[in-house]
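Dear support,

We are seeing what looks like truncated structure output for some complexes. This example has two components. We would appreciate it if you could run it in full and send us the complete token output so we can diff it against ours.
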Amino acid sequence: MSDFLAYGFVQRALVTGTILAVVCAVLSFFVVLRRMAFVGVGLSHAALGGVALGVVLGIQPLLAAAVFTTVVAWIIGWLGGRSEVSEDTAIGVFFPTAMALGVVLISVSPEYRQDLMAYLFGDILSVRRGDVLPLAAFSVVGLGLIAYWFKELLYLGVDEEAARAAGVPATPLRFLLLTLLAVTIVASVRLVGIVLVSAFLVIPAATGQAVARSLRGMLVVAVVSAMASVALGLALSWSWDLPSGAAIVLVSAALFFVSLAVGSRR
Amino acid sequence: MNAAPPPAVLLDRVYASYDGRPALEDVSFQVPEGTFSALIGPNGAGKSTCLRLVLGLVRPDSGRVEVFGGRPGAEVRPVGYVPQRVVIPRGFPISVLDVALMGRTGILGPGRRPRAHDREQALRALEQVRLGDLARRRFQDLSGGQQQRVLIARALCGEPRLLLLDEPTAGLDTAARARFYALVCELQHAQGLTLLCATHDLDAVGEHADTLILLDRSVHARGKPSEVLTSGALGRAYPFPSAHVHEGTGEAG
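Here is the complete output from our reference environment:
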């Protein structure tokens, strides 16, 4: 196991994975509070369309995916803010549409198919040296914005009407959350994969709420359990040559069931 | 020259629509400071739209809305809002104190976390609604009546002069409703608050309110409860055999 940490790509995967764990865990808090689990699923699948678009257009696939997924998030937010279409319905329309676009584009670009498994389920080898710094910068900005607006985001999640009445800028904050979700999902694609990243945006908070008795406790447990899932998941992925995303999500689900058992004993 | 103080709430020939449909037509009324006015009328009568106008969440198509002589929403602080109910995802560990503290959000502004002073204020507000000993409990473990009292405490944390209540007793049983309004009135008198409450609960507001405003798109009657409740207008607005209409779980009007 000690040689595990000796490799540069393993270290990079651990560093980026830990950063992503913190961001995903904090976002999962709001995903659970605002019942946005389906938004996460929709956006992660839209990311596939963005990746394929990047490949076809010759743009860096993850950059293309970040822009594409953010635009889809904004459209979902815009449609969800209108009364004709519920947010659920908007996602139900966009998630398969973007995914279908991805599948069509992939089928016309044969050289891209080998990478597909890595994008879908994550690959520990795929984290590049140049990925670490932009990710760290994004997470600092994203977490900073969440910290600055934390009590407003909490108020909005609990009671949007009263929060608006108290002067909380509901619409900008909804779009902030959607944008952070979109970028985080795309940033997580290399390590966790498109199919599984949405799980990582729900399970940490679910684990936290199963054992914690306060909001702060829930956040702490969410972050710690997500970090543990990444470290253990990557170790399993390395030892048994598993897709890293699947290993991480399985560990995090195991932690969730443990916390459920612990929580129900009290 | 000392002009008379402006009323807490003023609507002057207000037309407003909601979701593209006309909700209010030529509505005018005032709520003098320190009084309790109740908006009554059937579902869809525009009661909630009136409250949203006062909160500054909806703009009138025409006419004038003033809160303490100013533009609604311009200054958040004087207005507290108590909704029909608050639903928190099952298992989310939000305490009663957490919910009450949310009332400090407008005063604190972004980037500032609640401090000891805010916590004291929230605890005091919870004591005022007689829930001080439940501050650490999970909000969702409380009964419906207790939850509504927490929402009053939350509104009080914003140090309001005007409380807007939107069908605050929907879903509560008769005894809990009576306790709710008795508490609200006690707070009103103790703190000199102005109350504007949208409700179907004619028994309770008939007993406690100073003024009833019977709304059905436009103001059909306005006056002391005894006058409005016995007027023919009530029977026309509520086409039921009895005036004793109780609110169910129907959506806000």
